[in-house]
Design goal:
By secondary structure, this protein is an alpha/beta fold. It folds into two domains: about 100 residues, no CATH class; about 200 residues, Rossmann fold (3-Layer(aba) Sandwich), CATH 3.40.50.450. It is about 50% helix and about 15% strand. It has 17 helices and nine strands. Strands 1-2-6-5-4-3-7-8-9 form a nine-stranded mixed beta sheet, sandwiched between helices. Helix 12 packs parallel to helix 13. The protein is elongated. The relative contact order is 0.11.
Length: about 325
């Protein structure tokens, strides 16, 4: 793989400015920290109203020139300048990344998933790292979300969703974690479909696993993360990645959720509030309280019996999706 097939000149500049990739662990002791998502969004607005227009135009300009052109305080311009100074070393690190079967793409590049950009807009991650066929991230998909600890009925439901998704030519996008995520991804892969994993832990470590490597090479699995490819897992990273799962998907199915606690609940509520995609929830007599409460907030019921009888999951979801996913005042009464 060639980095230039994924990253434009603007993408290279954005990667240098907004990613911790190839930076030392103790950034604060050695140099400026990368721009956060909110900081970049602010800088992008200033860039558009300036004479420069593109991040690639930052290259070759002194901090003083950047300060004048962008209307920035000198210290902010110095931060940009110093982050861009690592472009040469960053290019070498990228060569190594791509040689190990991984890729990088930014919000400014053509191969960045269009649906993620369009759905999340300014909340879309500036940089994604991944492995596998990046084109899978452009496919229509259904997000499958749920608890790590799941009962027998939920286990069967998650696997069945995977099979139904494959039959409807929908990829399954999930978090790749133990429990619901893996069950749904295993279900779609077993049915010769495609799976997309949005990771909150080390991409580099994950692709070393033999079963993962096999599916990546088959072209039916893609993994990606908004974090550095060697980043370790944490609750904060998992919560931050939830919106990406919903933002990439055409539909979402919550298999099992606790009530007012945990990443599944928080992610589903956020998706409903923002209207990122229609949210369906497993609904039967034995489902957890969180499932029933999500239905009250505007999600759509999908029973085990209904799922088993579906001939086309995609068409059923399209016909049952609510145009107005949730009324704002519902969330005010939580």
């Amino acid at each position: 793989m060639d980095p230039h097939e994924y990253l434009s000149d603007d993408g290279h500049a954005l990667l240098a400015l907004c990613s911790a990739f190839a930076l030392p662990d103790d950034v604060s002791a050695t140099g400026p920290s990368p721009f956060t998502l909110s900081e970049w969004n602010q800088l992008a607005r200033q860039l558009q109203s300036s004479s420069l227009k593109r991040p690639a135009d930052f290259q070759g300009r002194t901090a003083k020139e950047l300060s004048k052109d962008l209307g920035l305080p000198v210290e902010d311009a110095e931060r940009i300048s110093r982050l861009l100074e690592r472009s040469g070393g960053l290019a070498l690190q990228l060569e190594g990344l791509f040689s190990r079967g991984m890729w990088a793409v930014t919000r400014l590049d053509e191969r960045y998933p269009a649906r993620l950009r369009e759905t999340l807009k300014h909340q879309a991650p500036t940089v994604l790292f991944g492995a596998g066929e990046i084109e899978l991230l452009q496919r229509p998909s259904v997000a499958v979300i749920g608890s790590r600890n799941i009962d027998e009925a939920g286990t069967a439901f998650a696997r069945q969703i995977g099979g139904k998704a494959a039959a409807a030519n929908l990829a399954v996008v999930s978090g790749g974690a133990r429990g619901t995520d893996r069950l749904a991804m295993e279900g779609v892969l077993a049915a010769d479909g495609a799976a997309i994993g949005a990771l909150a832990d080390s991409l580099e470590a994950t692709i070393r696993k033999s079963d993962v490597r096999e599916s990546l090479l088959d072209g039916r699995l893609a993994l990606f993360t908004p974090y550095a490819p060697t980043a370790g897992s944490s609750v904060g990273l998992a919560m931050g990645r939830n919106k990406i799962i919903y933002g990439l998907a055409e539909f979402a199915v919550v298999v099992s959720s606790d009530f007012r606690t945990g990443g599944t609940w928080a992610g589903a509520v956020e998706a409903l509030k923002n209207g990122w995609c229609p949210v369906f929830v497993r609904d039967d007599t034995s489902v957890p309280k969180g499932n029933r409460e999500l239905l009250k907030l505007g999600s759509v019921a999908l029973t085990e019996g209904s799922l088993g009888n579906l001939e086309d999951l995609k068409e059923w979801m399209r016909s049952h999706a609510k145009a107005n996913l949730a009324e704002p005042d519902l969330f005010g009464r939580e």
